[in-house]
Amino acid sequence: MPAMAMTTDILKTLLLCLCLALTPSLNAADSSDRGKIIGGSAHALPDWFKESFLEIADDVDEAGEEGRHVMLFFDLNGCPYCDRMLEESFESEPLGSYIQANFDTIAINIRGDRDIAFNEEISVTEKQLGEILKVYSTPALLFLGEDNKTVVRINGYRAPERFKQVLEFVATQSYRSTSLADYLQAKLDRNVYRLRDNPLFSEISDLSSVNGPLMVVFEDGSCYDCDEFHDGILADERVRKEIAAFTVLRLDADSSETIRDFYDNETTPAAFAREYRMIYRPGVLLFEDGELLRRHDSLAFSHHFKESLRYVAGGYYRETDYHSYSQQRTEELLEAGVTIDIGRPRMD
Q1: Same fold, 56-187 and 207-320
Q2: Alpha carbon distance 14, 294 (integer Å)
Q3: What's the sign of the alpha-carbon dihedral 282, 284, 320, 240?
């Protein structure tokens, strides 16, 4: 495949990688000085994924008769987050066997042109379905219960240990009696991670006192990705450059200590996490003067994370939506000859 075609293919991937995706200009000049995008990971889907006729209501009925649920796996070739999750959870044991026993997994290509009947009202192409369902990041996983209703939706990468709990929540039909947040709170091991100090973190406890950009990080003892977040993301020089504009507050999402919210009301880190429905650790919320502008409820690699910070701290949110910003920013970097690495962080 010609180099230019490979670059275009990878660029298309960026539009939907973890809500932080990027897209190139279709009229970009072919220049040896033009930057490149690296780090995209092509990954073949497991051969045990269901070969569906994409009549989803029928798939749900068939799965229900066998005591299983349908899992729609929205992916895009070249997505580094899809690659990692497929490798760690779908192709590794014991999760691979558990998924096959309890779910009919159907792949949906968010750039695909296959016709899909999602329900009686929606019969569109794969690409159009992604747009209707607002799938802005891959992987996105929709778990369907009876009557073809979504019982759980997961946006972005999850570590195998956390994903296991999501799978069990659906397979045991615990969604009938409790929320996913409460289920995870009760089930996840709290001895996985010890909260670490970081010179980036502020000691403030009153959010109403913060002027300008604020980054709130949620961690707790069940955080399987927090060490990577510290050592691979927060330690990245590109991220640290953009994070300098922020007041950074780390909250223990299990804590019942008193803090004050943006309106000077008493609350706790645990209640604050519930208020913003943050069930992933480390979860990140980006605010400007109390207004929530960006949320990260799955792992974002360094390039995507630093661009999200720049979007807020640079005030670009006042001018355009994030996806338009991403497209413009990608072209700007490539025209400047910058190599954009969208891959996994380097753990030094």
Answers
A1: yes
A2: 18
A3: negative
CB–CB of 24/8 below 8 Å?
yes
Instruction: Please answer whether residues 284 and 295 qualify as being in contact, where contact means their C-beta atoms are separated by less than 8 angstroms.
Output: yes
In the prediction, which pLDDT does 115 show?
A: 97
Q: Count CA within 13 A, CB hemisphere, residue 333.
A: 18
First-to-last CA distance in the chain? 33
Q: What is the pLDDT of residues 172-196, one digit of tens each?
A: 999 999 999 999 999 999 999 999 9
**Overall fold of domain 56-187:** Glutaredoxin (3.40.30)
Per DSSP bridges, beta strands 213-219 and 283-288 are: antiparallel
What tens digit of pLDDT does each residue of 86-101 get?
Answer: 999 999 999 999 999 9
Token couple for 348: 């030094």
For residue range 240-281, what is the model confidence (pLDDT) as tens digits?
A: 999 999 999 999 999 999 999 999 999 999 999 999 999 999
Structure tokens, 292: 């929530």
Give domain 207-320's CATH architecture.
3-Layer(aba) Sandwich (3.40)
> Which one, of 216, 243, 244, 233, lies nearest residue 302 by Cα?
233
Residue with token string 């992933």? 280
Residue with tokens 């709290």: 190
Inter-helix orientation angle 322-335/3-14, to 10°: 150
The domain locations on the chain are: 56-187, 207-320
Q: What is the pLDDT of residue 9?
A: 45
Phi, psi of 92 (to 5 degrees): -120, 155
How far does CA 253 lie from the centroid of its chain? 19
The pTM of the whole model exceeds 0.85: yes
Q: Alpha-carbon distance 277 to 272, whole Å?
A: 9
